[in-house]
Design brief:
about 120 residues, 4-stranded antiparallel sheet
Length: about 120
Protein backbone atom coordinates (compact mmCIF):
# COMPACT_ATOMS: atom_id res chain seq x y z
CA UNK A 1 0.00 0.00 0.00
CA UNK A 2 1.32 3.41 -1.00
CA UNK A 3 1.77 5.91 1.79
CA UNK A 4 3.00 9.50 1.88
CA UNK A 5 3.39 10.98 5.34
CA UNK A 6 4.15 14.67 5.74
CA UNK A 7 5.70 16.42 8.72
CA UNK A 8 7.28 19.74 9.56
CA UNK A 9 4.38 22.15 9.33
CA UNK A 10 3.70 24.71 12.00
CA UNK A 11 3.28 28.38 12.80
CA UNK A 12 5.93 30.96 12.01
CA UNK A 13 6.20 34.71 11.66
CA UNK A 14 6.62 36.36 8.29
CA UNK A 15 10.21 36.13 7.11
CA UNK A 16 10.76 32.85 8.92
CA UNK A 17 11.55 29.39 7.60
CA UNK A 18 10.11 25.89 7.76
CA UNK A 19 11.15 22.58 6.24
CA UNK A 20 8.49 20.09 5.25
CA UNK A 21 9.31 16.40 4.93
CA UNK A 22 7.42 13.60 3.19
CA UNK A 23 8.29 9.99 3.90
CA UNK A 24 7.31 7.68 1.04
CA UNK A 25 6.71 3.95 1.36
CA UNK A 26 5.17 1.14 -0.63
CA UNK A 27 6.28 1.82 -4.19
CA UNK A 28 9.25 2.47 -6.45
CA UNK A 29 9.83 5.98 -5.21
CA UNK A 30 12.49 6.96 -7.67
CA UNK A 31 10.34 6.42 -10.76
CA UNK A 32 7.71 9.00 -9.86
CA UNK A 33 7.39 12.72 -10.10
CA UNK A 34 7.00 13.98 -6.54
CA UNK A 35 5.84 17.36 -5.43
CA UNK A 36 3.92 19.63 -3.11
CA UNK A 37 0.50 21.15 -3.53
CA UNK A 38 -1.14 23.60 -1.15
CA UNK A 39 -4.64 24.80 -0.47
CA UNK A 40 -5.46 27.88 1.55
CA UNK A 41 -8.89 28.78 2.98
CA UNK A 42 -11.29 29.54 0.15
CA UNK A 43 -8.62 28.95 -2.48
CA UNK A 44 -8.11 26.33 -5.16
CA UNK A 45 -5.49 23.67 -4.76
CA UNK A 46 -2.20 24.98 -6.20
CA UNK A 47 0.95 23.21 -7.32
CA UNK A 48 3.93 24.63 -5.41
CA UNK A 49 6.94 22.63 -6.56
CA UNK A 50 7.82 19.29 -8.12
CA UNK A 51 10.89 17.17 -8.73
CA UNK A 52 11.00 14.60 -11.49
CA UNK A 53 12.72 11.23 -11.49
CA UNK A 54 15.74 12.77 -13.24
CA UNK A 55 16.07 15.44 -10.55
CA UNK A 56 14.71 18.32 -12.60
CA UNK A 57 12.61 20.77 -10.61
CA UNK A 58 9.81 23.20 -11.27
CA UNK A 59 8.25 25.89 -9.07
CA UNK A 60 5.23 28.09 -9.18
CA UNK A 61 6.23 31.72 -9.75
CA UNK A 62 5.20 32.95 -6.30
CA UNK A 63 7.74 30.74 -4.49
CA UNK A 64 10.71 30.93 -6.87
CA UNK A 65 13.84 32.01 -5.02
CA UNK A 66 12.27 31.27 -1.62
CA UNK A 67 11.38 27.56 -1.68
CA UNK A 68 13.61 24.62 -2.57
CA UNK A 69 12.38 21.10 -3.31
CA UNK A 70 14.73 18.16 -2.90
CA UNK A 71 14.70 14.45 -2.24
CA UNK A 72 16.89 11.90 -0.53
CA UNK A 73 16.56 8.66 -2.48
CA UNK A 74 18.35 6.64 0.18
CA UNK A 75 15.75 7.70 2.74
CA UNK A 76 12.76 7.78 0.34
CA UNK A 77 12.04 11.26 1.62
CA UNK A 78 10.95 14.44 -0.12
CA UNK A 79 11.64 17.88 1.33
CA UNK A 80 10.43 21.41 0.84
CA UNK A 81 12.64 24.10 2.36
CA UNK A 82 10.59 27.27 2.72
CA UNK A 83 12.39 30.53 3.44
CA UNK A 84 11.22 34.15 3.63
CA UNK A 85 7.71 32.95 4.35
CA UNK A 86 4.80 35.29 3.74
CA UNK A 87 1.26 35.25 5.19
CA UNK A 88 -0.03 34.29 1.74
CA UNK A 89 1.96 31.04 2.01
CA UNK A 90 -0.39 29.91 4.77
CA UNK A 91 -2.13 26.73 3.63
CA UNK A 92 -2.42 23.01 4.05
CA UNK A 93 0.53 21.50 2.21
CA UNK A 94 0.19 18.10 0.57
CA UNK A 95 2.89 15.73 -0.62
CA UNK A 96 2.03 14.07 -3.93
CA UNK A 97 3.41 11.43 -6.29
CA UNK A 98 2.44 10.66 -9.86
CA UNK A 99 3.66 9.41 -13.23
CA UNK A 100 4.69 12.85 -14.52
CA UNK A 101 5.09 16.43 -13.34
CA UNK A 102 2.16 18.73 -14.07
CA UNK A 103 0.14 21.53 -12.49
CA UNK A 104 -2.98 19.38 -12.68
CA UNK A 105 -3.66 17.80 -9.27
CA UNK A 106 -5.75 15.08 -10.93
CA UNK A 107 -2.60 13.63 -12.49
CA UNK A 108 -1.16 12.70 -9.11
CA UNK A 109 -2.19 9.25 -7.94
CA UNK A 110 -1.00 9.49 -4.37
CA UNK A 111 -1.54 12.15 -1.72
CA UNK A 112 -0.45 12.56 1.86
CA UNK A 113 -2.78 13.70 4.60
CA UNK A 114 -1.41 17.23 4.62
CA UNK A 115 0.48 19.40 7.06
CA UNK A 116 -0.62 22.90 8.05
CA UNK A 117 1.60 25.93 7.56
CA UNK A 118 0.53 29.20 9.15
CA UNK A 119 2.49 32.41 8.62
CA UNK A 120 1.59 35.42 10.73
CA UNK A 121 2.38 39.00 9.83
Amino acid sequence: QVQLVESGGGSVQAGGSLRLSCAATGYTYRRYCMGWFRQGPGKEREGVAAIDSDGSTVYTDSVKGRFTISKDNAKNTLYLQMNSLKPEDSAMYYCVAGPYCTRDPKAFNFWGQGTQVTVSS
